[in-house]
Design a protein that fits this description.
Helix 5 crosses helix 7. 39% of the residues lie in helices and 27% in strands. The chain is α+β, with helices and mostly antiparallel strands and 256 residues long. 30% of the residues are buried. Strand 3 and strand 4 form a beta hairpin. The N and C termini lie far apart (45 Å). The longest helix is centred in the middle third of the chain and has 20 residues. It folds into two domains: 121 residues, Phosphorylase Kinase, domain 1 (2-Layer Sandwich), CATH 3.30.200; 127 residues, Transferase(Phosphotransferase) domain 1 (Transferase(Phosphotransferase), domain 1, Orthogonal Bundle), CATH 1.10.510. This is Lipopolysaccharide kinase (Kdo/WaaP) family protein. InterPro entries: Kinase-like_dom_sf, Put_LipoPS_kinase_InaA. GO terms for molecular function: kinase activity. Keywords: Kinase, Transferase.
């Protein structure tokens, strides 16, 4: 196996489950969350796999892809698997102490001239997508104004930390922001980082990602969106400069 990374903690666990090489991992059936996506001349999918360790079950998220890459500056012709980029970002975020799925294995191998890649991560136990939380609050579960504000500010602070680390997510939708303990002490994590990249300019990161988030954030009132923006910018009021940035974000998020 042309292995790039495997968590020491999981080496024994994979072995106990008879998953000792790339071939066994590639052949292992997983429960797809949805049918694999076919594009770029290949396919890519994500699912769940249950492992057994010391008589207990472990849930692992597994992403598999074949010939599903993109050209980069360093790989202008052959391209690189999109999961390789996501793997690198997940490792980087762990170093920055920003919550994201923990990588347990990343591997690539050429099979009959096809580039195959596997990315396995720990499940985010107790976390759920932000869009599910806000929908539930809107439809079923009444929560206090303070609880909503605490959650929005926690998300804003974590998104800012993500951007301060130099990254732009490029798909920052509520379904890609996971939260835990939403009503008490929110924890925030990011998923689906295969499109993310480093960017030199903080304002560009804010402009690009906050536009996407604002566009896809349902059930947020105007006052909540403003509160989120001010928390993100660490400001108590909307200055002229912030008002201009806010207008640019709104313009981008509402364009068709």
């Amino acid at each position: 196996m042309n292995e790039l990374f495997q968590s020491k903690e999981y080496q024994t666990i994979f072995s106990q489950n008879h998953l000792d090489g790339f071939a066994s991992l590639w052949a292992k059936e997983i429960d797809w969350f949805e049918p694999p996506n076919h594009r770029r001349g290949g396919w890519s999918g994500v699912g769940q796999m249950m492992l057994t360790s010391d008589l207990r079950g472990l849930s692992v998220f597994v992403k598999k892809q074949k010939n599903h890459g993109r050209r980069t500056l360093w790989h202008p012709f052959s391209g690189e698997p999109t999961f390789r980029r996501e793997f690198k970002r997940l490792v980087f975020l762990e170093q920055q102490q920003i919550k994201a799925p923990k990588v347990v294995l990343y591997a690539e191998e050429e099979i009959k001239k096809d580039t195959c890649a596997i990315l396995a991560t720990e499940a985010l136990v107790g976390f759920e997508p932000l869009d599910i939380v806000t929908k539930r609050w809107h439809e079923d579960k009444p929560v206090t104004h303070l609880q909503k504000i605490v959650l929005l500010e926690s998300v804003a602070e974590t998104v800012r930390a993500f951007h301060q680390a130099g990254l732009v997510h490029r798909a920052l939708y509520p379904k890609h922001i996971f939260v835990k303990n939403a009503e008490t002490a929110p924890e925030v994590a990011f998923i689906d980082l295969e499109k993310s990249r480093f960017s030199l300019f903080f304002l560009y990161r804010a402009y690009f990602d906050l536009s996407a988030l604002n566009r896809h954030a349902e059930y947020w009132s105007k006052s909540q969106r403003l509160r989120f923006f001010l928390s993100y910018m660490q400001s108590k009021r909307l200055t002229k400069a912030l008002k201009l940035l806010c207008q640019l974000i709104l313009r981008r998020s509402t364009r068709r």
